[in-house]
C-alpha cells in the first residue's frame, strides 16, 4: 500500500501532502473501501456513460458531500471526463443521505456521491453506476491511523495498538451483517 511508504494519491492526498513531514501512518484502520455515483436499485440506468441520455430523470443533479473532499474531487473529474450535463451539488454527508432517503421514500430517481461502507448501504437497496472510464475510483482504497512523528516515542503502547487495530467493514457500516441486498 503506497501510503504506508509515503505515496499519497487520490482521496485526501492533497490534505495529507501538506502535513506529510509531521505525520506517521501507524497502520490500516479500514478498508478496502469503494466509492462512486450511486442510485436506488429501481433506477433503470446502469452506467455513468448513459447519464446524458437520461439527465432529465435527475433534476437535482448529482447530490454530493463536502466540497473539496476526495470523493467530490473524483466526482468533479467524472463530470468532466464524461462531459455530463448534470450539476454536481456539494453539501454534506448528512444532506446527501437525507436527500437520498427522501427520494427513496417517494420512489424517485436520485444520484449521489457515496462510499462503502456507509450505513446507508444497509438501509436501502442501492448500487453504484458502472464507471467504464474508472474516474470515480481506479482501485479500492484504505483509511489509516495517523499520528505525529513523536507519538510512538511518547506513547509506545498506544502506537502498538494503532498498528494492529482495524475496523472491519461490516462494523464501520454500522451493523454486524451484510444486509445491503435485503429489504430496506
Q: Evaluate the radius of gyration.
A: 18 Å
State the order of secondary-structure elements, H for helix, E for strand: HEEHEHEHEEHHH
Main sheet overview: 6 strands, mixed
Q: Tell me the span between the first and last alpha carbons.
A: 35 Å
Overall geometric form:
elongated
- Total number of beta strands: 6
Mean pLDDT over all positions:
84
Class per helix and strand makeup = alpha/beta
Measured as a percent range, the helix fraction is: 25-40%
- Please report the number of helical segments: 7
Share in β-strands: 15-25%
Query: Low-confidence runs (pLDDT<50, min 5 residues)?
Result: 175-184
Question: Care to describe what's here?
Answer:
The chain has helices at residues 13-19, 70-81, 93-105, 120-123, 151-154, 156-164, 169-172, and strands at residues 23-40, 62-63, 88-89, 111-116, 126-128, 141-148. The chain is α/β, with parallel strands linked by helices. Strands 1, 2, 3, 4, 5 and 6 form a six-stranded mixed sheet that branches. Strand 2, helix 2 (70-81) and strand 3 (88-89) form a beta-alpha-beta unit. It starts with 12 loop residues before the first helix and ends in a 12-residue tail after the last helix. 27% of the residues are buried. The model is unreliable at 175-184 (pLDDT under 50).
Amino acid at each position: 500500500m503506497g501510503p504506508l511508504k509515503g505515496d499519497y494519491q487520490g482521496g485526501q492526498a492533497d490534505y495529507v501532502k501538506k502535513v506529510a513531514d509531521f505525520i506517521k501512518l501507524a497502520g490500516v484502520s479500514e478498508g478496502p473501501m469503494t466509492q462512486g455515483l450511486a442510485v436506488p436499485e429501481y433506477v433503470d440506468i446502469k452506467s455513468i456513460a448513459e447519464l446524458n441520455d437520461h439527465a432529465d430523470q435527475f433534476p437535482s443533479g448529482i447530490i454530493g458531500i463536502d466540497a473539496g473532499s476526495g470523493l467530490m474531487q473524483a466526482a468533479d473529474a467524472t463530470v468532466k471526463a464524461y462531459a455530463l450535463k448534470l450539476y454536481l451539488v456539494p453539501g454534506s454527508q448528512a444532506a446527501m443521505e437525507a436527500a437520498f432517503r427522501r427520494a427513496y421514500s417517494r420512489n424517485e430517481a436520485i444520484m449521489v456521491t457515496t462510499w462503502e461502507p456507509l450505513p446507508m448501504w444497509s438501509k436501502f437497496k442501492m448500487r453504484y453506476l458502472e464507471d467504464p472510464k474508472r474516474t470515480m475510483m481506479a482501485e479500492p482504497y484504505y483509511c489509516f491511523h495517523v499520528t505525529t512523528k513523536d507519538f510512538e516515542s511518547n506513547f509506545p503502547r498506544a502506537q502498538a495498538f494503532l498498528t494492529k487495530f482495524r475496523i472491519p467493514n461490516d462494523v464501520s457500516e454500522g451493523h454486524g451483517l451484510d444486509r445491503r441486498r435485503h429489504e430496506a
